[in-house]
Amino acid sequence: MELLKVCDIEKYYGNKSSLTKAIDGISFTVEKGEFVAIMGASGSGKTTLLNCISTIDRVTAGHIYLEGDDITGLKGGKLNAFRRDKLGFIFQDFNLLDTLTAYENISLALSIQQKPVEIMDVAIKLVAEQLGITEVLNKYPYQMSGGQKQRVACARAIVTDPKLVLADEPTGALDSKSAKMLLERFRFLNKERQATIMMVTHDSFSASYASRVLFIKDGKIFNEINRGDLSRKEFFDKIISVVTLLGGDASDAL
Questions:
Q1: What's the pLDDT at 245?
Q2: Distance between CA atoms of residues 175 and 164, nearest Å
Q3: Whole-angstrom Cα distance, residue 212 to residue 91?
């Protein structure tokens, strides 16, 4: 079932005297339950694409549909309701509130939805168990490791069971062990909770956990590969070959 449809979108920055085209006619669809990675060099437009889908940025032209609804023209209360009820966003730098415990940070999304306390408690404890952070629920961000903070941020994003989870370089600030643990949890959420995930990453190892990879170059889709029946290692090797064609260097493959 088609969840997301991106139709010929463009995004410009600047003015007539200095105009930058960040996205140049991108179109694709995402099925419900897919795990899609978006790769590309710095400045390729991959984060801009994610920001347009999340409605952080507005497209200059084209349309984006979620469950058949055009989200590019949403304003006011409808825009707030869309972000609150249908999206989960995971940032590279966690964006946790330092004065709140992990439990309280995760509960924020449910509080905004005005969920009863009993339902909130069950949902928070379940997602904490699934992400392996039960032991830090009563801790503050300064008492957690980077990996724990990112998993708390992930829990906050998915606790409401959003239609689409967007992650912008979620492993960028993590060591390799924490990054692998987070990616394993992403795969678990994708398989067990049928979470639809779109993840921007420059890292081929992270992208190899996805079921499909879109490669962006100069604001356009350069290539697309599907994992199919390939093992993660085989898919990783396939990603590396495209990164090489894309003009990536050795650091992009580590």
A1: 83
A2: 26
A3: 21
Evaluate whether 189 touches 121 at the Cβ level (below 8 Å).
no
Residue range 199-245, pLDDT digits in tens: 999 899 999 999 999 999 999 999 999 999 999 999 999 999 999 88
Classify 185 as helix, strand or coil. helix
Q: Which of 75, 54, 83, 71 is nearest to 7 (CA)?
A: 71
- Is residue 198 within 8 A of residue 30, CB to CB? The reply is yes
Q: Can you give the pTM of this predicted structure? A: 0.88
Q: What is the C-alpha to C-alpha distance for residues 33 and 204, in angstroms, rounded to an integer?
A: 21
Cβ contacts of residue 103 below 8 Å, gap of 6+? 124, 128, 137, 138
pLDDT tens profile 125-170 = 999 998 889 999 999 999 999 889 999 999 999 899 899 999 999 8
Closest-CA residue to 203 (of 245, 170, 154): 170
DSSP string, 226-237: E-TT--HHHHHH
The CATH number of the structural domain formed by 2-253 is 3.40.50.300
Nearest-angstrom CA–CA distance, 39 and 137: 33
Closest C-alpha among 27, 59, 22, 58 to residue 42? 22
Please tell me the chain's helix, strand, coil percentages from 3-state DSSP, rounded to the nearest 5.
40, 25, 35
With both helix axes pointing from N to C terminus, report the angle between 117-131 and 146-158 in degrees, rounded to the nearest 10: 130
What are the residue ranges spanned by the domains of the chain? 2-253
Token code pair at residue 6 = 């991106």
Q: How confident is the model at residue 123 (pLDDT cuts 50, 70, 90)?
A: very high
* Residue 188 binned pLDDT confidence (cut-offs 50, 70, 90): confident
